[in-house]
DNA sequence: ATATTTGCTAACCATATGGTTAAACCATCT
DNA sequence: AGATGGTTTAACCATATGGTTAGCAAATAT
């Protein structure tokens, strides 16, 4: 019996859980707080999701499945490496700006429990580097790009895009910026990061 | 009355606390586990450090004061930007390889409690960008470097060096590498990251 | 030698927390 | 109307957890 109201409750729980888990992590999150945010009784959490662990996994999976497609953009379309980098950098920073807790949440929880990613790997749509590797190799051979391994390039792209969100408090302290200035700094990166990468790898 | 034995106990606690806190974080750490690892009674933790919070702060401060001097290397010596980047990249990756939990610990806990860094900012030896900024400006004006803001360059350097340690489980999954292969990949970055950055910013 | 301070432990405490239960509620079907 | 079955709640439970206390042990001072 899936009335509207039922679906709402389940979704409300997931939403509240998303907020709490992403901000406080598995260990810091409290079932009571999730229930309060969802505006329901704590017992409902268990009615719908059985346990904290399962509720957490539901949140983690939706978070991860939000992030993965973004990566596939750069891996699986047919444009040139340069275009891919420009597109990805701009899109990704825009995307994360709307979900600023996402990368940190995923990275943190994977460090807490590295085996967790094995469950994700089986999912359809898990990022796969094969096409990207071939493409980098081809463009290097053609002399479009300077020699670089696809893995290292991929890591660099991720690092330059994701790190400013993950290490935000640290960087804000080092660079002496407030929220507004940091937002601007991130905004600038939408094009600067791509330029930075392409400057480095493109043959002239 | 600081006998050897006393100092040993206090240090043993700090050491055990370091291990537990760095792996499990403030929320995931248990006082009992710290006591067990230190081989002493739980009450001793409170005898020496009063509360979990204070013990945690002691750990955090030592961790942070281990990391900060590394950053000052790149900021405050007199070599050229290029040399700084080469030195820093190699040294930093070597250093972190010996303390792999450090960056993630600091980043995670700062996200949990951003105000925490204010306490650090007052410490002597807190990284300061002023000299680095001037130097970048000078080298850009001289035409040695392509135009880039010192802040963005600094963020890029940090990102490329630190991110592979922070996001290790994620990257291992994406690139399909095991522990050994990942270690090699990191090893290669000691020079490749510097090349990557310098390629990007140096005028030819 | 004795008193005193310091280091340490076992037992205990109050509270927080994830989870359960029994009963109430409410919509739908007969 | 009354039975049925999914949904929701208040009250409850067992355990984990940070923290405290009273007293012992050992070193230091007198």
UniProtKB/TrEMBL annotation, chains A, B:
<dbReference type="InterPro" id="IPR036271">
    <property type="entry name" value="Tet_transcr_reg_TetR-rel_C_sf"/>
</dbReference>
<dbReference type="GO" id="GO:0003677">
    <property type="term" value="F:DNA binding"/>
</dbReference>
<feature type="DNA-binding region" description="H-T-H motif">
    <location>
        <begin position="30"/>
        <end position="49"/>
    </location>
</feature>
<dbReference type="Pfam" id="PF00440">
    <property type="entry name" value="TetR_N"/>
</dbReference>
<keyword id="KW-0238">DNA-binding</keyword>
<dbReference type="InterPro" id="IPR001647">
    <property type="entry name" value="HTH_TetR"/>
</dbReference>
<protein>
    <submittedName>
        <fullName>TetR/AcrR family transcriptional regulator</fullName>
    </submittedName>
</protein>
<dbReference type="InterPro" id="IPR009057">
    <property type="entry name" value="Homeodomain-like_sf"/>
</dbReference>
<dbReference type="InterPro" id="IPR050109">
    <property type="entry name" value="HTH-type_TetR-like_transc_reg"/>
</dbReference>
<feature type="domain" description="HTH tetR-type">
    <location>
        <begin position="7"/>
        <end position="67"/>
    </location>
</feature>
């Amino acid at each position: 019996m899936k009335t509207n109201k039922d679906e709402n409750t389940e979704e409300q729980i997931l939403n509240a859980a998303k907020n709490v888990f992403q901000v406080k992590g598995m260990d810091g999150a409290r079932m009571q707080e999730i229930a309060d945010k969802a505006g329901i009784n704590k017992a409902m959490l268990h009615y719908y999701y059985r346990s904290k662990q399962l509720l957490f996994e539901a949140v983690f999976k939706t978070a991860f499945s939000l992030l993965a497609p973004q990566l596939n953009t750069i891996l699986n379309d047919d444009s040139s490496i340069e275009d891919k980098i420009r597109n990805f950098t701009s899109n990704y920073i825009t995307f994360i700006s709307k979900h600023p807790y996402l990368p940190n949440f995923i990275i943190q929880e994977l460090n807490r429990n590295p085996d967790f990613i094995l469950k994700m790997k089986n999912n359809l749509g898990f990022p796969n580097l094969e096409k990207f590797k071939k493409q980098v190799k081809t463009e290097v051979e053609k002399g479009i790009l300077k020699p670089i391994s696809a893995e290292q390039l991929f890591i660099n792209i991720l690092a330059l895009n994701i790190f400013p969100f993950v290490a935000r408090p640290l960087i804000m302290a080092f660079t002496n910026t407030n929220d507004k200035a940091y937002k601007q700094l991130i905004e600038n990166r939408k094009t600067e990061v791509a330029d930075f990468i392409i400057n480095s790898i493109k043959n002239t």
